[in-house]
Structures are given as structure tokens and as C-alpha cells.
Amino acid sequence: MSREILIAPSILAANFARLGEEVAAIDAAGADWVHCDVMDGHFVPNISFGADVIKAIRPLTAKIFDVHLMIAPVDPYLEAFAKAGADIITVHAEAGPHLDRSLQAIRALGKKAGVSLCPATPETAIEYVLDRIDLVLVMTVNPGFGGQSFLESQLEKIARIRTMIGDRPIRIEVDGGITRDNAAAVAAAGADTLVAGSAVFRGKSSADYAGNVAAIRIAAEAGRHPKLQDMSAPPMRAGEGALVR
Ligand code: DX5
Ligand code: ZN
């Protein structure tokens, strides 16, 4: 199934002293979603922010709030994140023994449900919950910190998930170390939603952020349409567009 490329800047890389302005800046810069990384210092070795911060910035943009919960346990907090204004709530497959229950709870709260997989977790972890999810988040770094290096090993997992989900309306999101240099590879493997923190919040102004978002988007779209990568290649012939997923 062909799904447009979406770019989701992670506000983990924003200047927290000016968080409201940063959210407005990525909105103006053309971000599709606002990715919110919630860390508890237990499931991951870092603490970021919680539902009250998300609630505070929610009125500043109409964009989709894509909330990535790196917390365990997660079930006791789902309602708080739903009430804070999350549109998509993603939980980790590794965060507890009852993934199916967590996903049912998210949908019962009226939200889209996502599952995230750490780099060492195989794609088989989602095999029996495919009908309960709207999104799979493939971690391309070990979760906990921004600014880490992309793990190439995850490309094969992305491709396997793309095959596994078939025609189901499930987005494949990648998160960690995404830049304009690897966006084509993840899109070619099958990702359609790209989270980027440090690669977006580089520079000072919304105009800088807009350039960063656009560069990642253009690279990802070129990855899906390999012929666009080589501008010296002969022009597409009629019917070649059908190659596009
Ligand atoms: C890592 C987070 C990511 C991270 C992305 O645990 O889930 O969203 O902030 O940041 P960059 O793009 O800098 O790797
Ligand atoms: Zn994230």
C-alpha cells in the first residue's frame, strides 16, 4: 500500500526553555506530526517529560501528537496521555507481558495504537497484534537518548515488517539517528513515517527547521522512487510510475 511520507520531528531535541516556541516553529516548518518522547528512567536510562508537558503544548498546534511511551509499566498511564491530547499512543513490546491488553486499552480510549520494537526485538513480536495496531515504530537506535547513530541492522527488519503487514492500514515509523543521508534507505526498505530529532532542530529559526524537514522528506521520497535519486538518469517512460508502491 502506498502511503505518503510523513515527517515527525521529535521535540526531545528542542530547546526546553522555549518549548512552546519550538513546537510552533516545527509546525510552521512543515512537520506532519509532533513526536513526543516520554522516558521514565526505568524502561530507558533517561528521564524526559510526562503528560502535563504534553497537555501544556497541545493547544499550540493542530498537528497530530505522536506520543512514544518509553515507560514501564505503561497501562496505568495510558488514560493520562489520552487526556493530555495524544492522537497516537505507542507502547514498547518489551515494556510488559500484556501487549495485547495495552493496545486494546489505547483503542478503548479512542486513540490510534502503536507498537515500538527495540533494535534487538524481532518483528515476530507483533505477529499476533497486527489487527490491533495503526503503527509500528522501529527503533533505529537503542531508546533513551537523541543524537545517536542509526543502526543499519534495522533495515532488514523494516522490510520484513512491510511484507508482514501486507495491505493493512498500518504505518511503519522509524526513530533514531534519522538524517537526510539515511532517509532514502529507510523509505526504500518500507518506512513511511520518519522521526527526526537532532536532524530537524539544527539551526536557529523556523526557516532552518523547514529546510531540514524538507531535505529529509525529499530524500525519503527519492528512496521510494529510486529513479529520482539519479538525476542524470534518462526521464521516466510512460507506465514506469506503476513501479511506485
Ligand atoms: C530515542 C527517541 C528518539 C530520539 C530521536 O529514544 O525515541 O525519538 O529522540 O532523536 P535523533 O533523531 O536525534 O536520534
Ligand atoms: Zn521516539
What shape does the CA trace take?
globular
- The termini sit apart by 6 Å
Largest beta-sheet characterization: 8 strands, parallel
User: What is the correct CATH architecture?
Assistant: Alpha-Beta Barrel
Order of helices and strands: EHEHEHEHEEHEHEH
**Spatial order of the strands forming the largest sheet:** 1-8-7-6-5-4-3-2
- Give the averaged pLDDT, no decimals: 93
Q: Please, what is the CATH homologous superfamily?
A: Aldolase class I
Question: In DSSP terms, counting alpha (H) and pi (I) runs of 4 or more, how many helices?
Answer: 7
According to CATH, what is the topology? TIM Barrel
Number of domains: 1
Spans of at least 5 consecutive residues with low confidence:
232-245
Gyration radius, rounded: 17 Å
Look at the helices and sheets and give the structural class: alpha/beta
CATH top level label = Alpha Beta
Ligands (ions, cofactors included): D-xylitol-5-phosphate, zinc ion
Written description of the protein model:
The protein is α/β, with parallel strands linked by helices and 245 residues long. The chain has one domain: Aldolase class I (TIM Barrel, Alpha-Beta Barrel). Helices cover 29% and strands 18% of the residues. It has 7 helices and 8 strands; from the N terminus they run βαβαβαβαββαβαβα. It has an 8-stranded parallel beta sheet. α2 packs parallel to α3. It is globular, with a radius of gyration of 17 Å. It starts with 5 loop residues before the first strand and ends in a 21-residue tail after the last helix. It binds D-xylitol-5-phosphate and zinc ion. The site of zinc ion (ZN) has 6 residues, from β2.
